[in-house]
Amino acid sequence: MIAVKNNVYTISTKSTSYVCAVRAGKYIENLYYGRKIGTDEFGITQEDTVTALKEKYNNCYGNTIEAIGDEKNITLNSLKMEFSNPATGDYRMLPLLIRRADGSLVDRLYYVDTVCYDGVYEESEATRMPYAGRHEVRWSNTPGVKQEWISDVTKRPMTLEVILGDDDIVVKLIYTAFEECDVITRRMVVINKGKDSIVIQQAAGMMLDLDRTDYSMITFDGLWTRERHKNEKTLVSGTYSIESTMGTSGNIHNPFFMLKSNEASEHFGDVYSFNLIYSGNHKEAVEVSEYGKIRVMTGMSPYNMEYKLTSGQTFYTPEAVMSYSHEGLNKASYNNHQFVLEHIVPRQWAYKNRPVLINNWEATYFDFNKHKLVKLAKEASALGIELFVLDDGWFGKRDDDTSSLGDWFVNERKLGGSLKSLIKDINNEGLQFGIWVEPEMISVRSRLYEKHPDWALQSKSGDTYYGRNQLVLDYTNPAVREYIVNILSELLDENNIAYVKWDMNRPITDTWAGFGTESGEFFHEYVCGLYDVLHRLCDTHPNVLFEGCSAGGNRFDLGILSYMPQIWTSDDSDARERMYIQGGTSYGYPQSTMGAHVSAAPNHQTQRLSGIDTRFDVASMGVLGYELDLTRLTKVEKEAIKHQVSIYKQYRELLQFGHFSRVREDRQVTTWQITAENKLAAVSLMYRFDAEPSLSYERLYAVGLDENRRYRVRNVASKVSIKTFGNLINMVSPVKIKEEGVLQAIIDNMYAMNGETEEYIVHGSTLMYAGISLNQRFVGTGLGDGTRVMPDNSARLYIIEAI
């Protein structure tokens, strides 16, 4: 709820309070953001609370600037502010920089008024960007009724507009409270009411000041094939920032980040989290001041930003997302997960089970024909897989990555007939059909480029830079967007396609094209153009499952998730690397948004070997798929996959939509757990990175169970390849088996040893507080029936069910 009284506004969610007040008649002071507090209860008035919380000033600090207004002794550079103007003595980071036509800065935007109402921001559709609650609101033409909430009315948010301004410019600070998720969203609106044009050079949708500095900043960083690794930095004096200038949210720095108190852990302590509903250039920054305060900002990157507003025009920033937890990192993640599922992803997919798929890319790359594809589909069907995805190479003259992007017509020579015919054959095997597209790209060797070279982004003054032999289409051009919407609508409308993988395999460099969008406006206009295309395609094909992709996880953000309920997490499907990638991603995004595949070993990205059960165990912590040549697998591997798919389907709803927790994380062993909301079942993953000798005993702990219930705990059956033991196998084999020899290969193709079987019945309290002592790991001195064989890079799944 939101309450406004006597120039004080209080935003309350289920577990948090956010309190601000007008100070000196001009400024907005942030009094508090954190664990829920009383503001008008037990005989304590709002005035009492404000008096207790507001910062006290008797005199200005030496060498500081006096504030203007009712309290001249305020030092703005030390006050916790909601919005700061330039040239006022607040020398910290600023959320907004605007230049007037004469070159002067806009620097006197003061408090004017507040407006509060039910629902989301009333001009959300005008922003041309996705926003929280987009799929839950219907915009009304009924007089006096602007919006109707079409989902659970108890989850309807409230919105507060804090209005600032001068004679020519109005700035609105927009707050929307999603009470049940403990989330508050923020954005900023700039309206030019003057006669002359103005230019926006910087616009952050959220600025937050906190009055403690004993925090660490957690960011999620990486590159291609190693996205969103968790990095933690202890904050000391100075500014810490992350930024993307790639034209996408990027794989170098994800827009999601956290602040944790130095004593906080996964399970307790103060944590703030922040995200951005945006898919373009962004910047996040934390400044530690010498007054013992922290300023946090997130929003659009100022890189090459010169956004012109003529008289009467309005500019909207992307919507920022913030949440607070006093129960550690896991609870902060839970807040974000629930927010994404309830208010970001399309309603029809929020809790809809996702199919197990086979993607042909790493099975065939570009080298396929209809016979190969149908043969792969037949094998997939026999193993219980539900969806066949045809990846790159099906269109134009696309036999490698040097041609045909933009030519979205079927290569019937390669497919041996029409796409309809192939889809029919795939469907006849009992599989749904999905397809890969890369609609934001164009190849110079393409019909589209021959006809419209001015549609490609290139350099106006010199050499053009290429990525993966391709250029980027100018999505700021309405004609380009119309072409893409029409040709892909035709593809979807005329074929029985259940799934689309939407890729973008290179970032943006050059920003010039024939349409002539101003350079300083290009990056934002490109993203708004992309959202226009996604809105027209995804919203009009609600039964098609869209999966976002950008060379893997180069655009894993809330903007894409507003249209596509899942994203290909990374092109790296190596199990060990996926523990870092999926683990990092889990801090801000639920597991149902993460595409996760079992691929071949050695892995195509790292050349690392890991067992097929381990590869499945890690992939089962996301939306499961397979991406390897099923026709070349051994009998043992096919049996393993059939068993894996059966297990996944049995617990699919729990695995995709349960409560994800990071139980334990260290350099040797990581344990994750996914728990049903009713606490009646859970699945736990234990992953061993490196096996240390003579440290063989481990305990399995759980979190979030009912401590008074009894639970049965059992491991998912696994198999052990004889290759695991090398020449040691000859200690028990009656026949000499040469390592890497023909006999070893024959045996390994047909036979695998049974792994250990463990089963326990314990109280929830025992499992959570004492843990279960698991069977001894293999230590090199013998192998018993119950020995856990867990070498480097191996995993186990444990099923926990109430009885």
Task: Kindly describe this structure.
Helix content is 20%, strand content 30%. It is of the alpha+beta class. Strands 6, 9, 10, 11, 14, 15, 17, 18, 22 and 23 form a ten-stranded antiparallel β-sheet that branches. The chain has an eight-stranded parallel barrel with strand order 24-25-26-29-30-31-32-33, surrounded by four helices. Helix 8 runs parallel beside helix 9 and helix 11 (575-585) runs parallel beside helix 12. The mean pLDDT is 94.
Question: What's the topology here?
Answer:
Layout: E1 2-5, E2 8-12, E3 16-23, E4 27-35, H1 46-53, E5 96-100, E6 110-118, E7 137-139, E8 147-149, E9 158-165, E10 169-178, E11 183-192, E12 198-203, E13 206-210, E14 215-221, E15 229-234, E16 238-244, E17 253-261, E18 271-277, E19 282-288, E20 294-300, E21 307-309, E22 314-316, E23 319-325, H2 328-343, E24 357-359, H3 361-364, H4 370-382, E25 387-390, H5 412-415, H6 419-428, E26 432-437, E27 441-442, H7 447-451, E28 471-472, H8 478-493, E29 499-502, H9 519-538, E30 545-548, H10 558-561, E31 566-568, H11 575-585, E32 594-599, H12 612-619, E33 623-627, H13 635-650, H14 652-657, E34 659-665, E35 669-675, E36 681-688, E37 699-700, E38 710-715, E39 719-720, H15 742-750, E40 753-754, E41 759-763, H16 764-770, E42 772-773, E43 794-802
Parallel strand pairs: 24-25, 24-33, 25-26, 26-29, 29-30, 30-31, 31-32, 32-33
Antiparallel strand pairs: 1-2, 2-3, 3-4, 5-12, 6-9, 7-8, 9-10, 10-11, 11-22, 11-23, 12-21, 13-20, 14-15, 14-17, 16-19, 17-18, 18-23, 19-20, 27-28, 34-35, 35-36, 36-43, 37-42, 38-41, 38-43, 39-40
